[in-house]
Structure formats: C-alpha cells, structure tokens
Amino acid sequence: MWKDQYKDALDYIDSYWDKITYKPSKMRLEHQLTNMPLPYLYSHLKNIKNVAVSPNFVKLQHYYFVPNDNKFTYIYYWDSFFMFRGLMGTKREWLMREMIENFIQLFKTFDIIPNFSAPASMGRSQPPFFSSMIMDTFLTPLNPLNSYKHKKGLMEHVYRLQNITWLKKAIDTAKKEYETVWVDTLNNYNHHVDGYVLSRYGDRDIGYAHSSELESGWDMTSRYFNRCDQFLPVDLNSYLHKYEKDFANAARMLGNHIEEEYWLQKAKDRKEEINKYMWNEEKGFFYDYGYTYNLQSDFLSLAGFTPLWAGIATAHQAKRAVEMLPKFETPYGLTITAKESLAKPIDLSKIQKRYHPAIEEIIKPKQWDYPNIWSPLEYLTVIGLLRYGFVDDARRIMENSVKAHGAAFRKHGTFFEKLNGENGETGKGAQYIDQKGFGWTNAAFFRYISILDSMDSGKQIYFEPRPSEPPYELAILH
Prior knowledge:
This protein has 478 residues and is mainly alpha-helical. It has a domain at 371-478. Helices cover 44% and strands 6% of the residues. It has 16 helices and 13 strands. The chain has helices spanning 2-5, 7-20, 38-44, 77-84, 94-110, 130-139, 154-183, 209-216, 234-253, 257-277, 306-309, 315-322, 356-363, 375-387, 391-412, 439-456; strands at residues 21-22, 64-65, 231-232, 279-280, 285-286, 289-290, 295-296, 329-330, 333-334, 372-374, 415-416, 418-420, 436-437. The strands form 6 sheets. A 3-stranded antiparallel β-sheet has the order 3-6-7. It has a two-stranded antiparallel sheet with strand order 1-2. It has a two-stranded antiparallel sheet with strand order 4-5.
C-alpha cells in the first residue's frame, strides 16, 4: 500500500494541519460549531491556533486554514479548493464547511471572494472554485468510498433533510458571485467582454495586465505574454462551466427542474464558445483566445487540460489532448508549461540599452513556466485523464509525482510549493523565497496516495453504469 510506504510523509502532512488551522477571530464572542465530531472536538481542538489576528487580516467568524505557516498566512481562494482534497474522508472534514461559511461572509461583506483575506486584495479574486467546494462539502459525507464518515440508509435521509437548506444558502451565494463577479455584465471587475459568453481575468480598478495576471493565480507566467487582460483563458472558462453544471445539479437536488434546465443551457452556451474559440483541431489541444486581436494563442500549458477536468471535451478531443502529454511529462510529474513555448533568445545588440531590462523581463522564464511543476494544474489534469478513461496515464503521473515529492520530503523534511521538473528539486524562477509546508502540495500528495491505494485494492473508481462515452463520473473522493 502506498500509504504504508509513505507513512512518514503522511504523518507530517497530518501534523502540519495543526500549524495552519486557526480558531475564529477573537472579535467574535460566540461561534456555533455544529458539524465537528465530538471525539475530534475534545482531542484536537486544543491544537488549533488562537493567536492575535493581524490588523490587516479580515476578521473571520469561522475556523479557517491557510496555505503555510510562513509567507501565506491569509486564507487564499483557489488554494482552499485544492487543500479540500486533503480534508475529504478525514477527521478534519468539518473544516470544509467552516471555510464555506468564511467565503460566504467575505462575499456578503465585500461583494467578492478576494484573492486573500486582507483589504489589499479586495479589488481582485482568484480562479473561481466556490461552487466546487460547496458541492464537495455537501456530497463528501454521502460518498460510499468515504471510509471516515459515510452517511447511508436512514442516516443519509436525515443528513439530506438537515443540510439541504444549507446547500441552498451556499449555492445561492455562489450564484451571486458568478453573476456579480464573473459574468460581470456591469463590468465592475473588468471580467466581461462584449460579444462573448466567455470571461477574462481583471480587477475592480482598470483591469490592467499585471493585476489580471495576479488574479489568474499564475503570477507570473509567459503564458499571457505580459498582457493577461487581452485573453479569454481556457481554464477560467472551464471553471465557470463547472459552476453552471454545479448549479444545475443543485437545482435538481432541490427539485427545481426549470432552473436545472436554465443552467444546463448556460453550460451548453459556454461549451460551444470554448470549442469555437479555444479548441484547435489541427493541433489537437485547447488554447487561450486573444480577443483583442481575434487570434488563438499557441502557448502550450496545462490549462489546456482543464476542459477534461470540467467534462467539456469530447472523447475525440480528450484523445487528441492526451497525445500532448509528452510535451509536459517528466520523471517528477507534469511541468506547468511546455518547454517549446518559452520565448527564444533575442539579439538585443541593435536595441538601445535603456530598453533591455523591460525586454528581458518579458522573455525570461517566470515561476509559472517550464520547468516548474505545480500541484494544482497537475492535479486537475490527472482528474481529467481519469474522467476520460486514461487510467494508465493518470496512474503513471500520480506515481511519479508521489515518488518525487516523497523524495524531496525525505531529503528536506518538508514539502514545497512547487518542484523543478528537470531534477526534482525546489522550483525555479520564484518571485519570492521557495515556500515550505505546503498546503496544496500536501493535499495532492495525500489524494494521489488515496486514489492509488483505491486502484490497487480493486475499488471501482467510476460510478456504474458508465455512459457509452466519457466523461465518466468518478466514485472515488477527488
């Protein structure tokens, strides 16, 4: 079993949660915690931090976690989605609902789920995963493969009755975020582009290139050529398609079939535009679309696999996209971009020296470029491969990733925010000192091991019966 082979790493990951989990702000006099299991309450609550909150920190009303115990000590939007992968099926599942409540508080207060929980980031968000986190929180206790706390029979019935109102409240907030922030027809956040269903990254100010790239989560990358604001990103629109499918699923569970059809049509409309503007049949891959010049980008990144994760791709498109894997795959996992997409050297000898720093800054590899391996997009790629039946490819990538991060852990005694795909060491081109800990890396490592052990033990990873063609629905927690 993989969990036995890497018990030391998993023990570290388990203990690290205590370093990055915090009690609600001391400004809150009462906190009703109704979903924490009593054994956990008494044996582990004492380990959760109750430190003084920084004046710059938005005072949160519920328990929360942060990416690490060094630089990233605010809650971060898209980090939280990936860190949920490390909570599902564990004694800390209760934290997922606590974080949803924090995001609801943030949205109701600021009309946005910010990049991170401080005033400095209130003008921009991050890649949107709120609906996915809500559905994961509601459905995880109902999953038959949840060995920790599976609700079945009468307990399932009671759970649904007790929590369906909560689901409606949370989904209603996600709908408001989707409409106000991401569809953004009033253009308060510079996400709307006239003439398109598709959205872009931006900010509450002027939607300029730098802050748009910060909002993308890929800060910084060569993928957008230093003009992120001029692109309709394939990953962002895959995430928003997932919102629309989640809203349809929630409407079905709530018995509102008219609304279900409304959201299914929204998802269909977005899918059609993704295929129109972002799929390249000749090259067999999904790309960002530069709406300013009406040109499809040719930059290869793992974002091109997110339509598989979201269930947008056809079986044919998925097969073609998988043929691109060798451009990203290393013995240590998947690099975030393809080496061939990096800028080629430029002869600056005939250009005045005063322009050299700006040009060099544009063309140099950034931290969200080859050769770095980032767990978030690698993880979405793996899940996308599984959804389309490419089990052997997904297994190989997970095994290589576990071995690489496990080796780095045993060498350094910690996990890192990213790895170097050329040698398995810490990443290159950082905007800051390499971060240790680390929330989303720990969670992906934990989830890969859980999936690999499920496969090796013969558990059915798909809900049956499967449709005649993918995408398939995964039965395993993911």
